[in-house]
Design a protein that fits this description.
Strand content: under 5%
CATH topology: Four Helix Bundle (Hemerythrin (Met), subunit A)
Largest sheet: 2 strands, antiparallel
Number of domains: 1
CATH class: Mainly Alpha
CATH architecture: Up-down Bundle
Strand order of the largest sheet: 1-2
Number of strands: 2
Structural class: mainly alpha
CATH superfamily: CDP-alcohol phosphotransferase transmembrane (TM) domain
């Protein structure tokens, strides 16, 4: 009797469960969630956005700058080569701050931008100083270009090692000031190729040659100081425990015990 009574209760319980499920499906909240989820998927962020386009323009302006400075097509008497090259270099260097500002403000920081922005800066500076070695070697000898370009490679290497260790080295105020000094030095050296001084008013003159000379040497000092500053920041943030672990693993690998010979070799040696 009791089993039959239990079997008669089960269908009614199942009907109540189905009814509650049907009422839950008819609720507006469930259908609203389904309608929201069934919409079109959001568009993925584009890698070539406005900040990245500005960075690419800076990269494409580098061969144009070198062609203007080294091409014999421009007249060296009127100074149009020097004026045009100075304007292009100033415009290209100004975009360094514009693309970063737009990327942060518009929320368009991408992996492509993180890769291209420092690469564009280093290519612009390296191309400018390599060209100035040929254009005006009296003010920019080859060793100055080596110091400037070597500093860029050093900072890039430190940032790569820092990234592998799990931290980043942000651009310091000294590094930003170094960029401003480099812009002034490059423009002054370009203009010095045509004018040693500019008459300003009456007997007053603008000493371009002396400004270029002082700016170049000041730029070398600031570049070296900036490199030391980046190295100090790198050394203060590096994980000392990771360095100790690597050193300990290296010492253990050097002190590894010799591998014993196989059993067959030992048997042969014992028999002899």
């Amino acid at each position: 009797m009791h089993p039959q009574a239990d079997e008669g209760v089960r269908p009614s319980t199942s009907i109540l469960d189905h009814a509650s499920t049907f009422r839950a499906l008819r609720s507006s909240e469930v259908w609203r969630i389904i309608s929201q989820d069934s919409g079109p998927p959001p568009e993925p962020p584009r890698s070539v956005n406005l900040p990245n386009s500005i960075t690419l323009i800076r990269i494409f302006s580098i061969p144009l700058l070198m062609w203007i400075l080294l091409s014999p097509r421009f007249d060296g008497v009127t100074g149009e080569r020097e004026l045009l090259a100075s304007a292009i270099f100033i415009a290209a260097a100004t975009t360094d701050g514009i693309d970063g500002y737009l990327a942060r403000k518009r929320g368009q920081v991408t992996t492509m931008g993180i890769l291209l922005d420092p690469l564009a800066d280093k290519l612009l500076i390296a191309a400018a100083f390599v060209t100035l070695v040929q254009l005006n070697p009296s003010l920019v000898p080859a060793w100055i270009a080596v110091v400037v370009i070597g500093r860029e490679f050093l900072v890039s290497g430190l940032r790569s090692i820092a990234a592998s260790e799990g931290f980043t080295i942000e651009a310091s105020e000294l590094g930003k000031f170094k960029m401003v000094v480099q812009i002034v030095a490059v423009v002054a050296v370009i203009l010095d190729h045509r004018w040693k001084e500019w008459p300003v008013y009456s007997h007053y003159i603008f000493p371009i040659h002396w400004i270029a000379y002082v700016a170049i040497w000041f730029m070398v000092c600031v570049s070296l100081a900036s490199a030391v500053d980046y190295f100090v920041a790198f050394w203060s943030k590096i994980d000392q425990r990771g360095v100790k672990r690597r050193r300990r693993a290296f010492i253990l690998s050097r002190r590894r015990k010799p591998v014993p010979p196989p059993q067959a070799d030992r048997d042969v040696a014992a028999s002899t």
